[in-house]
Amino acid sequence: MNRRVLFSSESVTEGHPDKVCDLIADTVLDKALEGDKDSRIACEVCATTGMVMVMGEFTTETYIDIPKVVRKVVRGIGYTNVDAGFDADTCAVLTSIDEQSKDISDGVTTALERRQNSGDRYDEVGAGDQGMMFGYATAETPQLMPLPIMLAHGITGRLAEARKSGGMDFLRPDGKAQVTVLYENGKPVKVDTVVVSTQHCESVSQKTLQKAVEEQIVREVIPAALLDKDTKFLVNPSGRFVIGGPHGDTGLTGRKIIVDTYGGMCPHGGGAFSGKDPTKVDRSASYYARYVCKNIVAAGLADRVQLQVAYAIGKANPVSLNIDAFGTAKTDEAKILAAVKRVFDFRPAAIIENLNLRRPIYAATTNYGHFGKSGLDWEKTDKIAELKEAVK
After folding, report:
1. Closest by alpha carbon to 279, among 112, 40, 43?
2. Beta strands 232-235 and 251-252: pairing type?
3. Can you spell out the DSSP letters for 72-122?
4. pLDDT range class, residue 121, cuts 50, 70, 90
5. Statement: residue 59 has pLDDT above 60
6. 104: confidence class by pLDDT, cuts 50, 70, 90
7. What is the pLDDT of residue 115?
8. Helix, strand, coil shares of the chain as percentages rounded to 5?
9. Nearest CA to 112 among 99, 130, 128, 125?
10. How buried is 152 (Cβ within 10 angstroms: 0-12 exposed, 13-18 middle, 19+ buried)?
11. 170: exposed, middle or buried (C-beta count within 10 Å: 0-12, 13-18, 19+)?
12. What is the spatial distance between Cα 168 and Cα 191, in angstroms, rounded to a whole number?
């Protein structure tokens, strides 16, 4: 039986108000880690017309000039015109910063296992919170990511490139894209619908905008083989998008968690990434779960795999771990799970060390997805041989 289903994923540009906040939070985190690799940072940001507020719990030995960070980030995104309602040089920057809660700090610094004298150095750091995290990988793209989210990221990334290069000078920073892919028997076969909403200057006509976005953005990103005469292109379907960014909609960190991960193809535990140091398993364990899944698929053990891991605050070892290969496993799933437990260590201290997470790398992760990018340690496929050996 031929099963045909549609699946949609969205991405947003770096000028989307929520992503403005995410990038400020991750840049603040990077500044803390530059001066003190053991910084404990939980940074939250909101932005609205003419104002940015930076909040959170910081425990660090370094000084961070937060107003300077905020203005540099906002300027780099492209909000440099007060007439747009949001400007790097004139926006107010408010701060409300406190230290990390001693109760949380004690649980992270001295894990339950350490208090029980396990003697293992990886038992020294407890999880910074309870919660469940998910990882995912699929063989349907070279990046081992779902096709809909990769195409959506490609479109939003190209919107930013075209705007910054001057090639499409009528574009403004805010924007989003949504791509709907037709799957037949679990395989992507064509793009059904593309929706792009992009902020623009007052003077450009809708006809000019729609033609340029379809021809110079969408068709340059999506392979022609995935398009046909029935593919639908919807560019600014509301008809006008002049007011945008934090002037058009209040932004907040952590509201684009599906954009940040797998575009809805995989469940999400609920914890956001941006602004959190790696002792927060919301971030580090999600990165590690992606690392594990990518290595499983790259090793040929399954074509598609999802992993869930769950933690208790202050405890180093996870309380649960499971995988689902959706019927694509090339060997028994129980063997794959046993191999994962032999090859990978899910304790926070081990994750931080193995992925080298105490570095100022986080601003590079903020936009266009935290997964599927080259140059990130959790995207490496260096455990293939060990996994193959472990399932024998």
Report:
1. 40
2. unpaired
3. HHHHHHT-EEGGGTEETTTSEEEEEEEPPPHHHHHHHHS-HHHHTT---GG
4. confident
5. yes
6. low
7. 57
8. 35, 25, 40
9. 125
10. buried
11. middle
12. 25
Measured between its terminal Cα atoms, the distance across the chain in Å is 34
Q: Nearest 5°: CA angle at 209, between 159 and 255?
A: 45
3-state class (DSSP) for residue 308: strand
Strand, coil or helix: 166: coil
Q: Quick one: pLDDT band at residue 111, thresholds 50, 70, 90? A: low
Mapping DSSP to helix (H, G, I), strand (E, B) and coil, where does residue 171 land? Answer: strand
Q: The tokens of 178 are what?
A: 């949504």
Q: Per residue in 217-265, pLDDT tens?
A: 999 999 999 999 999 999 999 988 999 999 999 999 999 999 999 999 9
Q: Which of 138, 192, 190, 197 is nearest to 171 (CA)?
A: 197
Q: Is 116 exposed, middle or buried (0-12, 13-18, 19+ CB in 10 A)?
A: exposed
CA–CA gap between residue 375 and residue 89 (Å, rounded):
33
Residue type, 150: M
Beta-strand (E) ranges in the chain?
Answer: 4-12, 40-48, 51-59, 80-81, 86-87, 92-98, 131-138, 171-184, 187-200, 232-235, 251-252, 304-311, 320-324
pLDDT for 102: 59
**pLDDT at res. 210:** 96
Contact 293, 343 (CB under 8 A): no
Model pLDDT for residues 268-325, shown as the tens digit of each residue: 998 999 999 999 999 999 999 999 999 999 999 999 999 999 999 988 999 999 999 9
3-state secondary structure of 331: coil
On whether the CB atoms of residues 129 and 313 are closer than 8 A, the answer is yes
What global pTM score does this model have? 0.94
Nearest to 152 by CA among 122, 196, 92: 196
Local structure of residue 276 (DSSP, 8 states): B
Q: How far apart are CA 71 and CA 9, in angstroms?
A: 31
Q: Nearest 10 degrees: CA dihedral of 359, 363, 365, 366?
A: 150
Structure tokens at 314: 């202050």
Q: Cα separation of 290 and 260, whole Å?
A: 12
The amino acid occupying position 336 is: I
Structure tokens at 68: 């300077």
